[in-house]
Amino acid sequence: MTFIAYYWFWLQVNAPEVADETLTGKRETPSLKSTANAVSTSNNKSKKKKKKKSKEGSSRTDKHETPLDVSFDTLSLASSHQSGPSKSKSENAKVREDLVKQSTPSILLVDPKYLNVENELRRIFGSKVVNSFEKSNQSSSSRQVRGGRRGNHHIRKTVLISPSDHWPRWDGSLSMEFLETKDGYHYFRYAHSSSYDQAQRAFEAAQAIHDLNGVASVLLYHPYHLDSLITMADYFKFVGEHQMSADVIAKCLYALECAWHPMFTPLLGNCQLKFSHDSNKPLFKALFTHMKNMDRRGCNRSALEVCKLLLAFDSDDPMGAMFCLDYFALRAGEYAWLERFSEDYRSDTSLWLFPNFSYSLAVCRFYLEREESSHNTCLDTTKASSADLMNQALMLHPSVLKKLVAKVPLKDQAWTNILKNSFFLSDQIGIPTLDHLINIYVERNYLIWRLPDLQKLLRNGALLVIETMEHNRSDAKDWACVRKEAFSSDKNEYGHLLVQDFSDTVQTLPPDNLQNFMVDMREAAQIGGQFANPPAGGHAPAPRDVANRNPLAVLFESLLPWVNYGAAEDGVVDENQVNGQGQDNEDH
Questions:
Q1: Which ranges in 446-537 belong to alpha helices (H)?
Q2: Which terminal Cβ of the chain has fewer Cβ within 10 Å, N or C?
Q3: 371-374 long-range Cβ contacts below 8 angstroms, 24+ apart
Q4: Is the separation of the CB atoms in 328 and 295 below 8 Å?
Q5: CB distance 531 to 513 below 8 Å
Q6: Which of 238, 245, 251 is nearest to 171 (CA)?
Q7: From residue 539, how far is each of 35, 211, 564 by CA, in Å?
Q8: What is the mean pLDDT of each run of 10 residues along the chain (588 residues)?
């Protein structure tokens, strides 16, 4: 385990103590939280009253309802007198329209029981295996925290993750603002407190000099600073500490959920958190990483629910959830839901034009046909067959076949003969957007095509396309026109989505490149770990002064690859100065 990992462990042991001390006597209850508690208390009291009054006659109930109806009538009359009859009618019609939109069930409804990873692990491996694993983790965590003082505070139960008992108390540094209601959707935005802004400035200062040690120090006094948590999670992932990375992301999601507004109902698919607001961006980054962590553990249904959240929070889909939604649905066996999603999500039913949905809908129909035949039910003749959908996908996106053959890989001689045909000869379409989306699809979904039944479906479809091309070459021109019209831009409209973000492989960085770790993670991954953004001016960070410092602290600091103490020829080095030149050549 690296030095940063040990330092992070020390922070986890002492952070609750430090955080509790900073909160002593200064903690204020947020107004939103008190409002929510008041509402819940009044609701509980009203429920008890209703149970008592249910035994009485209906005439008494009418007496209680009459003043309420009168008050509503009075309010409506008052509004009509103030704004005129025409305006009140239009406003009432708009309210009714919004209510109708909200009452219709969203295709992106999230089932909270599937958000819990432990529940899916129990379904996969059994309760005994998971319970024994959890006991071993609890015993190890109790040994780790034994050196520090446990925080005597209540850990809130959350929906997105299961918080750990040794996490520090929620400091209330985040909140959520309600912005507006538009077209049946409620719009929100995260807001920062003054203490959070102070932590943000400290984080940006550490980021400017690539000081990951400084980022970890921010978390000592502000344990729920989002950017610092995400940075530490990225670091642990790149050095191979995947479990620690997942724990940090869970801690980040815990903080984000604790700040939710009382009106924020994300599981219903009617709330929007636009990515354009900077304060909302950590939620998208944390959820996307959390989804990938679930996929790595084999919890595809849980990953599907998180993917729904990502798509529901911002219809512009800044993280590209649309391009892995089909993969998780197929892996989780949600074939009927995926087919319904492709029909209901967009009124113009244009999802089939995307490469991932074009092929995944054929796979989806293939499994639905198998289920219908196994239950001896009549096949749905109103829908196209899986063979027709596969034929359509191959005609629309023929370059997918060659990429799949190379990626899966498919080494049978039949595939070699198929790829000799001129229609499947090229692996590029020539449309930047489409070529990029095809690369994402192949990188994300290639594992599905390792199943023999699906390989047979793909091979039969390719042979049918070749036979069709021999008799009628005009079909190829027609499908080329469809591609050109659907993806008409000369620029890559999805260039912000990196293919590596949809890959199963984890990018690792050699120790020498960790000096520039905090420059631009996405740009670093895009060029395969070779960083193109050196520090300003192309020079290494300024040497640090070690005079009058603790030698042991300097020794540990020298293990960090981005720390520079200067070379011997820069000046005379006394006996108390630690030279970082020799440390650069060691294996960290």
A1: 452-471, 474-486, 521-526
A2: N
A3: 371/335
A4: yes
A5: yes
A6: 251
A7: 54, 16, 11
A8: 55 53 42 40 46 44 41 37 41 43 68 87 77 65 46 77 90 96 95 96 91 90 95 89 93 97 93 96 97 93 96 95 97 95 82 96 96 80 92 96 96 94 92 96 97 96 94 89 93 94 80 56 42 39 58 57 52 41 42
Judge whether 496 and 285 are in contact, CB under 8 Å.
no
CA distances from 568 to 188, 372, 386, 543, 564 (A): 56, 77, 71, 11, 12
Q: Which two tokens stand for residue 336?
A: 């009927």
What are the structure tokens assigned to 128, written together? 């005994």
Distance CA 104, CA 106 (A): 6
Q: What is the dihedral of CA 154, 159, 162, 166, to 10 degrees?
A: -30
The tokens describing 155, both together, are 């850990």
User: pTM (2 decimals)?
Assistant: 0.73
109: Cβ contacts below 8 Å, ≥ 6 apart: 267, 268, 269, 308
Rounded to whole angstroms, the Cα distance separating 567 from 582 reads 9
Q: Is 145 exposed, middle or buried (0-12, 13-18, 19+ CB in 10 A)?
A: middle
Quick check: helix, strand or coil at residue 317?
Answer: coil
Kindly state the greatest CA–CA separation across the chain: 97
Q: Could you tell me if 396 and 479 are in contact, meaning their C-beta atoms sit under 8 angstroms apart?
A: yes
